[in-house]
Amino acid sequence: MSRLLASVATAALIATTLPALAEPLHVEAVMSPKEQMQLNFKDGSNHFVLLVRREGKAEGIGALAGTSVVEYGMHDIIPGVGGNPVGYLEMTAPNGDIAYINWHIGAVFVPGPAGKPMLLDNGYWQIVGGTGGLKDLVGAGTLHLKAVSSTDRRFILDGEVTRKH
After folding, report:
1. Beta strand ranges found along the chain (DSSP E)
2. Which of 21, 83, 131, 140 is most buried per CB count within 10 Å?
3. Is 134 left (phi over 0), alpha (psi -120 to 50) or beta?
4. Count of CB atoms within 10 A of residue 78's CB?
5. Which domains does the chain show, CATH number per domain?
6. Chain segment 48-66, per-residue pLDDT in tens
7. How many CA atoms lie within 13 A of 85 on its CB side?
8. Sign of the CA dihedral 138, 143, 147, 148?
9. Is 10 helix (H, G, I), strand (E, B) or coil?
10. DSSP state of 12
């Protein structure tokens, strides 16, 4: 019996000293604008900067699934050329706990069907803060942004999350 107790105690000690394994995360949120301001360059370039607050709900798997999402974004775009959208996502769990996500995208236009430019919005995200049960959450991954309509965007976050020790 003492060997069993010693084995259990050793296993418990090892489990508490090993780093936690990261868990997969895949969430998607269709975000609709609630506020926006836009600067349109009048130099013939079609360059614009859009400041936007969008809202949506994250669905999928992982620690951030089921959260309400607010985007605070700055989309600096030259249509047909490219851009560098950046911003934050505030992801609030049903219990009020919050995770703050910083994101960056490289917007690239490539030839699309019928000669019309197609926009590829791909980048990365990283958890930069949180409250309550999400305070110790850390993680990062890839971000894809897809147009759902002329105003709504689907944010697709893939990656891994774990807890700080």
Report:
1. 23-40, 48-57, 59-61, 68-78, 82-83, 86-92, 98-111, 117-130, 137-147, 153-163
2. 83
3. alpha
4. 15
5. 23-163 (2.40.350.10)
6. 999 999 999 999 999 999 9
7. 30
8. negative
9. helix
10. H
- Enumerate the β-bridge partners of residue 68: 57, 92
Question: Residue 92's closest CA among 71, 112, 115?
Answer: 71
Residue 124, beta-bridge partner list: 104, 142
Instruction: Give the residue ranges of DSSP H helices in 18-151.
Output: none
CB 122 within 8 A of CB 130: no
Whole-angstrom Cα distance, residue 87 to residue 9? 46
* Residue recorded with tokens 């489990």: 15
0.90 exceeded by the pTM? no
pLDDT band for position 20 (cuts 50, 70, 90): low
Is residue 83 within 8 A of residue 57, CB to CB? The reply is no
- Predicted pLDDT of residue 3: 55
Q: Closest Cα partner for 52 from 75, 34, 68, 36?
A: 36
Q: Is 2 helix (H, G, I), strand (E, B) or coil?
A: helix
Q: How does residue 19 score in pLDDT terms, banded at 50, 70 and 90? A: low
Q: Are the CB atoms for 19 and 151 separated by under 8 Å?
A: no
